[in-house]
C-alpha cells in the first residue's frame, strides 16, 4: 500500500495545477477515474482567456494568473501559453441601449476599448451581417489559451517533483485507518493523510463518499459546434465574436468557426453530450449574425461547467473534516485561473500564507472558503 501526504481526486486542470504547485512540498498522488487526463471540462473548453466580463473576484484571479501565463517557469512549455485573439462585442438594433451601458462601464476601466463603426466592425470581422450588427466595439484583451500545453506543463512539473498520477482509477469505499484515509482503487489501495476534492462536476458526490456534507455544486451543460468558414476567410485573423448579453459567442477553432449558444443547463455529472436543440441554436446564431451558411456541422460537443450557488470557486478545508479539502466549483474559468487557484490551494494545504499576489490584487482568499456554503 502506497502512502502519501495528499491524494487529489480528479485529474482535470484543477487537480493537476494543484499537484504542480504542491508536489515540491508534499508527497502527492492524483487519482483520475477516466482513461485520459482533462477528459471532461478541461478537454472541452473554448480555451478563452479574458480579464473582464466575469465576477470581480474571478477577474482578479485572472489578473493574478496572467503573469504565470506570460512568463511560465523555464521548461514549462515550448510554446507561448497565450495567443492574442482580440474580441468584438456586438449588438443588434434591439439592444443598442444595453450596448451603450456596457460599453460605457467597460471603457471606464479599460481605455483600450475601441468603439467601431459598422464598416469598421465588418472590416475586422468580414463574416458579420450588416443587417444584424447595429453596434460594436473591439477589446484587444482576449487571448486563446494553449490548453494542452498548459495541462502537460502541470503534469511534467508535478511528476518531476515526485507526484504520482494514475488514470482509470475510480475511488471506491474510502475508509479511515488511524490518521489516514485508505482509498480502494483499480491501481491498488492508497493511503493519504489529506484528501483534495478536485472532482469537477462530481465534487458533491465525492464529498458524500467521504462523509462530508455537499455544498451545492451543480454541473451545467454548455454546447459548441464547429463549421467551415467561407473560402478566403482566414481563421487566424478573426477575433472572437461576443453578443452583448452572451446569447452566443463565436471564435476560430482549428481553422473553422466555433459557435456556442452559451447555454448553461443544470445536469447530472456525466460524460455529457450535446442536445439537438442546443446544436440547432448554435447553428441558428451563425446564420443570424454572420454570412456563413451552415451546410454541415463538422463537430458538436458539450462540456460541464460546475458552479457553487454564488458562482465563486470553493477552496479550503471542510469545517467538520480538517483532512478533507475542497478545490471545486470553478465554473467556466478553471483553466484561465488555474495558476492562481493552484498556488492558493497549495499554500493553504501546507499551512502557509496566500501568495503575495493575492494581497497585491486586494483579493481575500477567505471569499472562496467552503465554510461560506456549509450549513
- In DSSP terms, counting alpha (H) and pi (I) runs of 4 or more, how many helices? 9
Q: Kindly estimate the percentage of residues that lie in beta strands according to DSSP.
A: 25-35%
- What is the name of the CATH class of the largest domain? Alpha Beta
Q: Please describe the biggest sheet, giving its number of strands, its sense, and whether it closes into a barrel.
A: 9 strands, mixed
How many domains? The number is 2
Q: Report the strand count.
A: 20
- CATH level-two architecture of the largest domain: 3-Layer(bba) Sandwich
> For the residues shown, what is the average pLDDT?
94
CATH homologous superfamily title of the largest domain: FAD/NAD(P)-binding domain
| Helix proportion | 25-40%
Question: Tell me, what's the shape?
Answer: elongated
Give the termini distance in whole angstroms. Answer: 36 Å
The whole-angstrom Rg is: 21 Å
Class computed from helices, strands and strand pairing: alpha+beta
Q: Give the uncertain stretches in residue-range form.
A: none
> Helix and strand succession?
EHEEHEEHEHEEHEEEEHEEEEEHEEEHH
What is the CATH topology classification name of the largest domain? Answer: FAD/NAD(P)-binding domain
Amino acid at each position: 500500500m502506497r502512502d502519501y501526504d495528499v491524494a487529489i481526486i480528479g485529474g482535470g486542470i484543477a487537480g493537476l495545477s494543484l499537484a504542480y504547485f504542491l508536489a515540491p512540498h508534499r508527497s502527492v498522488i492524483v487519482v483520475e477515474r477516466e482513461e485520459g487526463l482533462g477528459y471532461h471540462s478541461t478537454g472541452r473548453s473554448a480555451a478563452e482567456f479574458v480579464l473582464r466580463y466575469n465576477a470581480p473576484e474571478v477577474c482578479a484571479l485572472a489578473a493574478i494568473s496572467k503573469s504565470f501565463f506570460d512568463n511560465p517557469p523555464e521548461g514549462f512549455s515550448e510554446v507561448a501559453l497565450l495567443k492574442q485573439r482580440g474580441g468584438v462585442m456586438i449588438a443588434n438594433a434591439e439592444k443598442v441601449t444595453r450596448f451603450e451601458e456596457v460599453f460605457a462601464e467597460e471603457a471606464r476601466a479599460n481605455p483600450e476599448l475601441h468603439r467601431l463603426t459598422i464598416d469598421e466592425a465588418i472590416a475586422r470581422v468580414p463574416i458579420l451581417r450588416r443587417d444584424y450588427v447595429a453596434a460594436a466595439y473591439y477589446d484587444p484583451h482576449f487571448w486563446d489559451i494553449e490548453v494542452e500545453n498548459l495541462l502537460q506543463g502541470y503534469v511534467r512539473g508535478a511528476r518531476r517533483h515526485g507526484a504520482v498520477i494514475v488514470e482509470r482509477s475510480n475511488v471506491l469505499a474510502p475508509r479511515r485507518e488511524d490518521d489516514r484515509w485508505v482509498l480502494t482503487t483499480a491501481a491498488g489501495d492508497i493511503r493519504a493523510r489529506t484528501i483534495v476534492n478536485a472532482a469537477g462536476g462530481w465534487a458533491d458526490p465525492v464529498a458524500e463518499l467521504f462523509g462530508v456534507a455537499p455544498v451545492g455544486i451543480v454541473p451545467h451543460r454548455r454546447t459548441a459546434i464547429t463549421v467551415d468558414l467561407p473560402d478566403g476567410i482566414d481563421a487566424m485573423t478573426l477575433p472572437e465574436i461576443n453578443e452583448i448579453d452572451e446569447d452566443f459567442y463565436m471564435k476560430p477553432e482549428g481553422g473553422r468557426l466555433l459557435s456556442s449558444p452559451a447555454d448553461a443547463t443544470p445536469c447530472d455529472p456525466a460524460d455529457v453530450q450535446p442536445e439537438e436543440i442546443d446544436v440547432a441554436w448554435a447553428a441558428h446564431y451563425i446564420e443570424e449574425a454572420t454570412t456563413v451558411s451552415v451546410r454541415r456541422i463538422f463537430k458538436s460537443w458539450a462540456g460541464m461547467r460546475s458552479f457553487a450557488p454564488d458562482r465563486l470557486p470553493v477552496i479550503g478545508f471542510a469545517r467538520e473534516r480538517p483532512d478533507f479539502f475542497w478545490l471545486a466549483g470553478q465554473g467556466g474559468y478553471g483553466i484561465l485561473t488555474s495558476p492562481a487557484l493552484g498556488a492558493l490551494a497549495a499554500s493553504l494545504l501546507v499551512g502557509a500564507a496566500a501568495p503575495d499576489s493575492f494581497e497585491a490584487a486586494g483579493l481575500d482568499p477567505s471569499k472562496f472558503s467552503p465554510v461560506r456554503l456549509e450549513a
